[in-house]
Amino acid sequence: MTALLPERATTYDVEAVRRDFPVLSRVVNGHPLVYLDNASSSHKPVQVLDAERAFVSQHYSNVHRGVHTLSQEATDGYEQARSTVAAFLGGQHDEIVFTKNATEAYNLVAYSFGNAPAGSRFALGPGDEVCVTEMEHHSNLVPWQMLCERTGATLRWFPLTDDGRLDLSDLDGLVNERTKVLSFVHQSNLLGTVNPVDVLVRRAREVGALVLLDGAQSAPHMPVDVAALGVDFYVATGHKMLAPSGIGMLWGRKELLDAMPPFMGGGSMIEVVQMSGSTYAPAPERFEAGTPVISQAVALAAACDYLSALGLERVQAHEAVLTARLLEGLRRLPGVRVVGPDSTVSRGSAVSFTVEGVHPHDVGQSLDELGIAVRVGHHCAAPVCRRYGVPATARASSYLYNTEGEIDRLLEGLEQVQAFWKA
Amino acid sequence: MSVTSAQTGPESLYQEIILDHYRNPHHRGLRDPYDVEVHHVNPTCGDEVTLRVQVADGTVQDVSYDGQGCSISQASTSVMTDLVIGQRVDAALVKADAFLELMQSRGALEPDEDVLEDGIAFAGVSRYPARVKCALLGWMAWKDATAQAVAQDPEENP
Question: Which domains does chain A have, with CATH numbers?
Fold first, then answer.
């Protein structure tokens, strides 16, 4: 992936986009809100809010259960949402499992593998390996640590280079004939790094490892085509891509999903239930035990439609302009250090940084006084902080509604913060 | 726009007393002798403190610490050492409870300067729920270590 040309963004009407997001007109602590915490969670446009409200107001019922009209309309809405999300990611209808968030999706895969009987293609045991990277969000790390603990498999990981990239120098050693699963992040939530999926997938294919790609930070920000990526599983979450919280998604190759054991048991995921035992429905129902997140799925589909109408290529180009401006501005501030790639090449809009002499929490609190929202802390990626020798970072992450003027407000704000804390 | 005007008012988070303790922390650095050493972390932000206490004759003889964290957590730990060192354990626990109560007050409590001294500067922190845990990090470490020290030696039990 290469950096997109800034001039492509000139056709992008960011002011029109902003009018779709009511919260952006808020005043916070006496200043117009500058929301730069999008890698944590994004805001929702009126189109998404309206879609959810219309569904709940007129068509809501439980799904897959009744013969009455509302039940059918609700089921249609829910299943249409599945089709929309599938098309958005380049997959098929039956390959999308709705979850409550991305975390549940990783756990679904890890627990399903853990439930596989010995000898199954999914089963792990001593001698088997799971490979991740040092830049994983805790949600794509801890479930694999737990799986390895339960099964006796070994967890391995790619280290990171000083400039915030994966160190692939031992690619063939880390992904080898013992590797059963390779699970890694598409775009790092802390560093902003976009990883070379093709290189990793090629090696995984050579050794027969299954590949899970964490798309929580890529689906909102770039065109995604799971078929082109060549992975086996892809995970994303609604609330980072203009949809409500409470809805996440797992895409998996149908052939794999149908062969995997269930994760959670309950209603909806069964075929025949007898007191002596049960058989299970095919995917995706097999992995959606209980009443699912219904209206949030409908809202997620509306968010996908919104993003598709805007064009992810244009969103990506717009963000590249903002990221370039931010990186350039941060470079000019003495004592500010970017943790992650210092260019827009193979990089997303999440920019972590430290300010010499000022703890990230104090940076964030001081910026809030100026109406500027950034995230501070370890961003659920504590090993990354440890790798770069910082206890925490401040992170500014822009999205489709942010402007160059807002980036400038952040940079001016950081100068103010430095002045305040210098005394 | 100005950070300074917003952040130095009487209602603000960053009181001058807090900034003073942050820049020039009291009793910082791990010392011997000590009875108990604890390590407390704030898992949501990564702040951490290693803290030692020495208790003898029912009195807090010494508290020393090292750690990393934001201005609120570092200054609060500094103020805490001023308040508890040399105090009877039960009197120091009263101060700890008073500070905890202040932190949980959401700005609705007028702190007692006779009890909390410089600690009253943290009254504003209670209006920032996300920062309360920062202010409590050192205090909770001290309470933990002191309880262990007292339990180790029943004669120290006040």
Answer: 6-44+311-422 (3.90.1150.10), 49-308 (3.40.640.10)
